[in-house]
């Protein structure tokens, strides 16, 4: 571990100092290097890799092997920020033993420094086993996409009194189980603020308002690389899909009209060698 690497302690300290934590998703080494160099605090190898990179229509089909493959690539590209690997659906629900073994694979086989898993009270035995084994854990409450079929769609969570109270209780239990941070996805801003004040560990919001201790976003959403996907909480800081499309159209046109490759892109042999060719 290098000396200036962001650690779970750095992330906890940021909350006590009132410094806002920044987190983005990464799925490959090239993006990991760009985001790391830009100074983001944490990278999440999200199981959203299923939607964003693998063409699935949910996160449910994503496997351990796929997550390990992407986590390895991200860790090769990231040298300063803290890398968190998302545990895929069914890698931590069956038994605590299986959960612990799978969490351990991320630290052993990829270089990730922490894992993230979705859920409240029901996952606290797994969170305890992991943290007892020295594996830092990030929790995830609110809209938990691995439960999309049970939730009945991608909807804001914790809107009524009972649901809000349950979420606050789950948050307390995840903290007590040893998690060092907690993602809150698609919960009312007022509830996310309350949870953030009630916990000593930092909350990291996505669609959870400005009162969280940090924010996370899917990098491809902030760059506008996925035309058509625009939930209310997404801010597209650029519209790169139009840039990508324009660049590729130019390439196609220049190749077809023999403008590319131009002489400066061609590799030549020496004249005396050329003369000896028949
Ligand atoms: N590219 C990408 N970005 C994400 O943020 C993301 C993924 N993929 N895949 C995994 C999950 C799925 N996510 C989603 C998907 C859809 C909505 C959505 O349609 N939200 C509605 C909420 C409607 C309501 O209840 O009011 C919205 O309009 O914001 C939200 C989060 C977040 N995650
Ligand atoms: C949206 C974030 C929190 C996530 O879990 C993912 O990208 O998989
Ligand atoms: Mg996820």
TrEMBL record:
**Annotated residues for binding of Mg(2+):** 47, 86, 118
Q: For this chain's UniProt record, which GO biological process terms are given?
A: methylation; pantothenate biosynthetic process
Q: EC number(s) on record?
A: 2.1.2.11
User: Entry cofactor note text?
Assistant: Binds 1 Mg(2+) ion per subunit.
Q: Which UniProt keywords apply?
A: Cytoplasm, Magnesium, Metal-binding, Methyltransferase, Pantothenate biosynthesis, Transferase
State the pathway, as annotated in the record: Cofactor biosynthesis; (R)-pantothenate biosynthesis; (R)-pantoate from 3-methyl-2-oxobutanoate: step 1/2
| InterPro entries in alphabetical order | Pantoate_hydroxy_MeTrfase, Pyrv/PenolPyrv_kinase-like_dom, Pyrv_kinase-like_dom_sf
Q: Indicate where this protein is primarily found.
A: cytoplasm
Location relative to the cell: Cytoplasm
Kindly list the GO molecular function terms attached to this UniProt entry.
3-methyl-2-oxobutanoate hydroxymethyltransferase activity; magnesium ion binding; methyltransferase activity
What residue intervals traverse the membrane?
Answer: none
NCBIfam families on file: panB (TIGR00222), PRK00311.1 (NF001452)
Q: What is this protein called?
A: 3-methyl-2-oxobutanoate hydroxymethyltransferase
């Amino acid at each position: 571990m290098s000396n200036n690497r962001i650690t779970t302690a750095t992330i906890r300290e940021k909350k006590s100092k009132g410094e806002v934590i920044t987190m983005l998703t990464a799925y490959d080494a090239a993006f990991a290097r760009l985001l790391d160099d830009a100074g983001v605090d944490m990278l999440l190898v999200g199981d959203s890799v299923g939607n964003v990179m693998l063409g699935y229509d949910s996160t449910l089909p994503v496997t351990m092997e796929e997550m390990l493959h992407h986590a390895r690539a991200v860790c090769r590209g990231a040298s300063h920020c803290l890398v968190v690997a998302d545990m895929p659906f069914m890698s931590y629900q069956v038994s605590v033993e299986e959960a612990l073994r799978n969490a351990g694979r991320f630290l052993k086989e990829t270089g990730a420094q922490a894992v993230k898993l979705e859920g409240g009270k029901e996952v606290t035995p797994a969170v305890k086993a992991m943290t007892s084994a020295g594996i830092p854990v990030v929790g995830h409450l609110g809209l938990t996409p691995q439960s999309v079929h049970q939730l009945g769609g991608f909807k804001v969570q914790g809107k009524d009194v009972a649901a809000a109270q349950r979420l606050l209780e789950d948050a307390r239990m995840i903290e007590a189980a040893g998690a060092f941070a907690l993602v809150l996805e698609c919960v009312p801003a007022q509830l996310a603020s309350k949870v953030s004040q009630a916990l000593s560990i930092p909350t990291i919001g996505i669609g959870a308002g400005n009162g969280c201790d940090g924010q996370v976003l899917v990098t491809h959403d902030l760059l506008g690389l996925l035309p058509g996907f625009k939930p209310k909480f997404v801010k597209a800081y650029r519209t790169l899909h139009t840039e990508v499309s324009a660049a590729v159209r130019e390439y196609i046109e220049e190749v077809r009209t023999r403008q590319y490759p131009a002489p400066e892109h061609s590799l030549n042999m020496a004249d005396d060698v050329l003369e000896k060719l028949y």
